[in-house]
Design goal:
By secondary structure, the chain is mainly α. It contains 24 helices and no strands. It has a domain of 141 residues: Homeodomain-like (Arc Repressor Mutant, subunit A), CATH 1.10.10. 35% of the residues are buried.
């Protein structure tokens, strides 16, 4: 008996030792290539050893990871597609739902990011969603939610896409706070930044520019000195587009060119093309047709070279057709007309196919799944089941609407709170409003005069004299001993906005700070708050508060009171008059 026991012990020890040795072998190989950057093919001599070892051991989990690394380090997009196919085969051999879901998502991302082919991308996302139901991996599920949102955004369903991006953003943000491992921190940071960028794009298309601007400022703040250069480029792109829309053409061109420099590192050709389009439009605004047409032709070159089309670039061909029509160049006009026809055909076909599939294979299934979960809790008769089903669907729709509204409100409050905490509401520093115009692009006012007025403006801001009711630019100019023309020009060039926007921002940011830091303000009526910051009308105050902060003052007060109650229940001895920083 003792002899048999010893043999079993030796066998088990040998087995576990060999398994640990194999695991260590994968780990040791991976250490030699994991530090390479994306698309760096120098990783492959080590990666091929990793894949060969996994094949020899018939270790399909590791083989799946190896092929996924092949996607990451391949430079050629055709190779990325090849490795993603191999990863799916290995994942199926592993019979692991999470592996299968992840590899289908990976192939969808290759179709989307490297080819901008939305139909095959959606097909892979839907397969990933199907297998993710059994994976138990919330990070993976929210990655899928994000990419389904990307497809909805492409189709122009911006409100629906916002729901996806907001949900994913909340998850990645919460996960980031809990992460300890560097890889987890990096991945969750990217998740937060990518969802934030997509939210900005949706708000821009919905015409909610103040909210988009606020999110852009947060994105730039979080990336300007970080390793996330690609994401920094995305936020610069949105900053440049907004500057173009504000007819601030020089700053728009400068920031869009910087955006291209950052985005080019990962060859995100779609956003590069969008940036080139807006650079061209900015040159048109400056009446520099030659440079503008060069940009529009570059957009066409990018589209032809990569064989893709997105609705945002359609305008490029309309501008070129109109330009060459005016020039009498029928050959060029005909070429770009054919390009526009091709673009419309792609967009129309994609819209028809994608909208049907995303509704029938994703939205309907999500709703049905939630309804079924409610019905499982009941054991009534057939008639009662029908009644409960109808009631459940109606209730579910109401709950979804309320949940979406509450979720959006939480996001808006979180964004606003972060701006307050990071001192963005301490407005006097001109750098925190907008990038001022470069010296060579400013008006030819006497520099001593400009600096004198700026010093007076700084004192005006620091002393909160903007809370005076009925303040106009003429009155302020008189107080600063200058004229309204000079003052308007200096505010526009050094604060980046017109006088009305400048004054509204100062007042709303001042009262928002007060509401956040001084509990007594939370008990004031809306009329009193308006009066405290110098705004005469309750309606005007409420509208400006929502435009600048993204939420009504009553909503902000409700959320702030709720947060203070939560903080006090955690720390009963805390001083409620000044909130400080929120709990992490």
């Amino acid at each position: 008996m003792t002899k048999n026991y010893n043999l079993i012990t030796i066998f088990l020890f040998s087995f576990f030792f060999s398994q640990e040795k194999v695991a260590n072998s994968f780990y040791e190989i991976k250490k030699k290539y994991e530090f390479f950057a994306e698309n760096d093919e120098r990783a492959f001599p080590f990666l091929n050893r990793y894949i060969d070892l996994a094949k020899t051991q018939k270790n399909y989990d590791e083989l799946t990871k190896g092929y996924e690394d092949g996607v990451f380090f391949s430079k050629d997009r055709a190779d990325k597609l090849k490795y993603s196919d191999s990863a799916i085969i290995a994942a199926n051999l592993s019979q692991n739902s999470e592996n299968i879901s992840r590899t289908h998502l990976g192939k969808g991302i290759v179709f989307y990011f490297n080819f901008k082919r939305y139909r095959p991308a959606l097909e892979q996302y839907l397969k990933a969603y199907k297998y993710s139901e059994n994976s138990g991996n919330p990070y993976l599920k929210h990655e899928i939610v994000y990419h389904i949102g990307v497809v909805k955004s492409y189709l122009g369903y911006y409100d629906a896409a916002l729901s996806h991006f907001s949900e994913a953003n909340l998850f990645f943000e919460a996960n980031l706070r809990k992460s300890n491992h560097p890889n987890e921190i990096f991945n969750n940071e990217k998740g937060v930044l990518h969802t934030l960028h997509r939210m900005i794009v949706c708000y821009r298309h919905l015409g909610k520019h103040v909210t988009a601007d606020s999110l852009t400022d947060i994105g730039l703040l979080r990336t300007v000195q970080s390793v996330h250069k690609q994401e920094y480029g995305y936020f610069l792109k949105e900053k440049g587009i907004r500057q173009y829309l504000n007819k601030n053409y020089y700053d728009a061109i400068s920031n869009l060119k910087k955006a291209i420099d950052n985005i080019s590192n990962v060859n995100d050709f779609a956003w590069i093309a969008v940036s080139e389009l807006f650079i061209g439009k900015a040159y048109l605004g400056l009446r520099d047709d030659q440079k503008a047409i060069e940009c529009f032709k570059e957009v066409d070159s990018i589209i032809v070279a990569n064989g893709f089309m997105i609705p945002e670039l359609r305008e490029n061909y309309e501008i070129l057709i109109d330009y060459f029509n005016q020039q009498g160049d029928t050959e060029q006009q005909l070429y770009y007309t054919k390009q526009l026809v091709k673009a419309d055909r792609i967009i129309a076909q994609d819209f028809t196919d994608l909208s049907v599939r995303i509704h029938s294979e994703y939205d309907t299934k999500v709703l049905q799944k939630e309804k079924d979960a409610l019905l499982k809790t009941t054991s009534f008769s057939f008639v009662m089941t029908i009644i409960v089903s109808i009631a459940a669907i109606l209730m579910l729709l109401m709950m979804l609407k309320r949940y979406r509204n509450d979720k959006h409100l939480k996001i808006k409050y979180k964004i606003l709170e972060e701006k307050i905490i990071t001192d963005l509401y301490e407005v006097p520093d001109e750098r925190k409003i907008i990038l001022p115009a470069p010296p060579e692009e400013r008006s030819e006012l006497d520099e001593d005069l400009v600096q004198t007025i700026l010093r007076k403006l700084k004192k005006f801001e620091d002393e909160h004299r903007f809370t005076e009711a009925g303040l106009t630019i003429q009155k302020l100019a008189a107080k600063l001993h200058t004229n309204s023309t000079y003052l308007s020009q200096i505010i526009r060039e050094h604060r980046g906005v017109n006088f009305a926007h400048y004054l509204a921002n100062l007042r709303i940011r001042y009262i928002t700070n007060k509401l956040y830091t001084d509990k007594i303000y939370l008990s004031y009526k809306i009329e009193t708050l308006a009066e405290k910051c110098g705004i005469a009308s309750r309606t005007n105050f409420s509208n400006l508060f929502q435009e600048i902060n993204g939420m009504r003052p009553a909503e902000f007060i409700k959320k702030r009171l709720k947060n203070l109650t939560t903080e006090n229940s955690v720390n009963p001895n805390s001083d409620q008059t000044s909130s400080g920083h929120p709990d992490p």
